[in-house]
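[User] Could I get a sequence and structure tokens?

[Assistant]
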Amino acid sequence: MRELILSEHPNRAIVARISEIPQLQVIPFENKITKKIGGIEYESTITLYRGTASLTFVMDDPFWYSINNIISMVNNDGTLDWDYWINTNG
């Protein structure tokens, strides 16, 4: 189980685990590369895989939580200032 953070909501997280075997649909491509070792250039080929991967997650606790506190102002008496908010990008 790990923390899952989606790019659509970078300040939200949930504890998730993979529930099914990942499904891969890839096609191999040959890629020629040149590496310099000891002043001598060597040519070689590597395999690049392009395609898609599908993951299925399960969350045992269905509640998302905030990674960073977005309320940053505290009054002199220690209470939170609800009129002052900042977003996750500052």
Summary: The chain is about 0% helix and 50% strand. Residues 14 and 62 are 8 Å apart (CA to CA). The mean pLDDT is 85.
